[in-house]
Amino acid sequence: MKASIKLVLVCAAAGLGVLTTSPVLAQSLPSSAPRPKDVPAKIESYYRVRWGSLKDFVALYEKNHKPLLEEMRKEGFILAMKTEYPFTHIAGGPRWDVRVTITYRDGAAAINDPAWETRWAEARKRLFKDAALLDEEEAKRFSLLEDHWDVVVSDYPE
Question: DSSP string covering 91-141, please?
Fold first, then answer.
C-alpha cells in the first residue's frame, strides 16, 4: 500500500512546495501557517474484492494488516483510521467493497519516514512470530483483490 501512495504524495507535496516557496505567496502567508510537511495527509484506499471473497478479505485484513496500522497509530504516525463498506451495490467500473481512510501525521509519515519503516518492522516481529505465515496470508489477501487504488484527499482550503 505504501509504495502506491508514494508517487501521489510526492506529486502533491511538490505542488504544495511550489505554493509555499513562491516569494509572492510566502509574503502573504502568516508565519504561523503550517508548512506542507506539518499538514496531516489523508489517504483513502479502495479495495475491489473478487465476488464471494469479501468475508475472507476482511478477516485477513483485520487479523494481519489492521493490528500493524493500530501499532503505527499508537506510535503517532497515524492520527485516525476508518473502515467503511458501501451500503448498496455499486456499478462495475467504480465499484469498491472496502474503503480505508487513514489520516497520517504528515506526508513524511505517509510515504518516506525512516522511523515508520523501523517501527513497522519492530511491530511486525513483535505481533507475528511466524513471519512466513504472515507473508502467506498477506499474499492470499491480495490475491482476493480485483483492484486497489489510493486517493490523497484534503479539506478544501478556506
Answer: -TTT--SEEEEEEESSHHHHHT-HHHHHHHHHHHHHH-S-HHHHHHHHHHH
Mean pLDDT by 10 residues, the chain (158 residues): 44 40 43 64 96 97 97 96 90 88 93 92 97 98 96 75
Query: Each residue of 59-77: pLDDT tens digit?
Result: 999 999 999 999 999 999 9
CB-CB contact of 44 with 150 (8 Å): yes
User: How many CA atoms lie less than 13 Å away from 98 in the CB half-sphere?
Assistant: 25
| Residue 36 burial (10 A CB sphere; 0-12, 13-18, 19+) | middle
Domain boundaries, the chain: 2-153
Mean pLDDT of the chain: 82
Among 99, 97, 105, CA closest to 42 = 105
What is the CATH number that goes with domain 2-153? 3.30.70.100
Q: How are beta strands 98-104 and 145-153 bridged, if at all?
A: unpaired
Dig out the grid coordinates for 77 from the structure.
504516525
Q: Which residues pair with 43 in a beta bridge?
A: 102, 152
Q: Which of 87, 93, 88, 85 is nearest to 57 (CA)?
A: 85
How many whole angstroms separate alpha carbon 128 and alpha carbon 123? Answer: 8
